Amino acid sequence: MSRTRIKICGLTRAEDVHAAVEAGADAIGLVFYPPSPRFVAFERAAELAALVPPFVTTVGLFVNADAAYVLQALAQVPLQLLQFHGDESEAQCAAFGRPWIKAARVRPGVDLVEFSASHPSAAGLLLDAFVDGYGGGGKVFDWSLIPERLGRPLILSGGLDPGNVAEAVRRIRPWAVDVSSGVESGKGIKDAARIAAFVAGVRNADG
Ligand SMILES: O=C(O)c1ccccc1NCC(=O)[C@H](O)[C@H](O)COP(=O)(O)O
Known about the structure:
Belongs to the TrpF family. This protein is an alpha/beta fold. Helices cover about 30% and strands about 20% of the residues.
C-alpha cells in the first residue's frame, strides 16, 4: 500500500509553509479566491511558493475564476497543479495545459460517478463537504456517499483534523488527504503543532 499523500491548504504565512514542509506535507495550497480569509495576492503567493522545496507540490486554488485571472496567477506564481473548487466545467479546467484536480462539494443526492465522468481529464477528484462559500468550512461529509470506484485518485477533505484523520484514512484509503481549518489556530493562521499531529495521524493509519 502506498503512503497517503498530504496537502495542507490555505497557507498565508512563511512560517506556515516551513511548518508544513518540515512536517512532511507533499503539497501546499494557495487560495486565489478573494472572498476567502485565506486569500493570497499574487505577489505574496510568489513569495510563499519560493519557499517550497523540490518535490513538494504548490497547488493554486480557484473558484469560478476568469481564465485571465488564472493565466495571471500562472505567470506570476510557480504552480505545479491547479485546483478548481467551484462550478467549473471540464473545458474550463483543461484550458491551461496544466495538471488539475476538481473539487466535488458533497451532500446527499450528489452523483459522484457522474461528476467524475464529466471531468475526464482531471488528475484527481477532491471530495469536500458542501458548505456556503465553497470550501474551507471545516465540515465533515457523510463518507458513505463515496462510491466504491471513482476511476481516478481520490483526495479526501472536509473537516479533517488531527483527531479524525487516522480514522478517515483507515476507512476510505484515499490517495491523499487535504486539510485547512483543522490545522488552524485562526482563519488563515496555521498551527505548527496541529500540522505535525495531522501528519502523524496519517502516518499512523498508513501503518
Ligand atoms: O479555504 C478557503 O477559504 C476556501 C474557499 C473557497 C473554496 C475552497 C477553500 N478551501 C478549500 C480547502 O482548503 C480544502 O481543499 C478543503 O476544502 C478542506 O477544507 P477544511 O474543511 O477547512 O479542512
